[in-house]
Amino acid sequence: QWLGGMGMIVLSLAILPILGIGGMQLFVAEVPGPTKDKLHPRVRETAVRLWGIYAIFTLLETLLLLLGGMTFFDAICHSFTTMATGGFSTKQASIAYYQSPFIHYVIIVFMFIAGVNFTLHYHLLHGKFQNVKKNEEFKFYSFVIIFWAVVIAAILFFSGYGSAEASFRDSLFQVVSMITTTGFVTADYEQWGTFLLLIFFILLFSGGSAGSTGGGIKIVRHLLLFKNSFLELRRLIHPRAVIPVRYNNHSVPLEIISNILAFFLFYIFIFIVGSLVMSILGLDFMSAMGSVATSLGNVGPALGSVGPTDNFSHIPMLGKWFLSFLMLLGRLELFTILVIFSPAFWKT
Hints:
By secondary structure, the chain is an all-alpha fold. It has helices at 2-6, 8-15, 23-30, 43-67, 72-83, 101-114, 118-125, 129-133, 136-158, 164-179, 194-203, 219-237, 254-280, 285-296, 317-331, 335-340, 343-347; strands at residues 246-247, 250-251. Helix content is 63%, strand content 1%.
């Protein structure tokens, strides 16, 4: 999981040129924002620097988890899978096994870090705070996490879930885990009520930041889609006005907006078809939708029979093959893997 977290795509930029696909073509697939903020003019050096930052964060988390009382084996394993947003735990109960607020908060912090664009980490480590402060995706990412964590925590607290701190901690943990597509759990959120289940189902479609180790649709796509939707209302009122979508003080080309719209439509189409396939294979509708959404988003736990206290072992063999394909499809941004299967790609 740790190797896959930074991405086979970034790895391929450095040591797998045998693939026959240009390095930046692969990097573009993994970083879907309107600008590719390269750290170094040579792709290989960029990849090496990103891996260095990745390793530093992994080591730091390992040390903090050791301070929190984890064994070395558990600390290194959970650090690997936190920074990779893979969410694989050495314990059956996931992070709920550790009744330690310190461990919970450490993992929350590093899940949040893993869900941020790693070029921003590079800028931060080099003192370029303004680049981080002005980044619209980072601000939107932070806002979404804080907003839903506070809303869910308030609902839990006033419904008698526990203390204000426990309600906020479990809420924040699950929101960060879902949005970053890590998939760790500290509680069975299926017991929190139908409304909160609906929120978590929606969060399965969020994804981390572009250039992060997170999967899913990616925050920048949501942000640009929202911006374009609001601007469409202005264009209806002022049909002759030329009003471009702006991101980080730059105009976003129309072809990028078209690409994002196509990505969303294709993502939803695959989700609907996948849900029908899993229903045909015998899953109830909630479990079918949950299994497909979590596989496409590379999250892990979902709803129904594949919820936070369950697993995928009961799914028929054909369903396991299908969901495995959806995981690969989602991790490689849909179009990348479909292009590889296209005859036209091999002809060129």
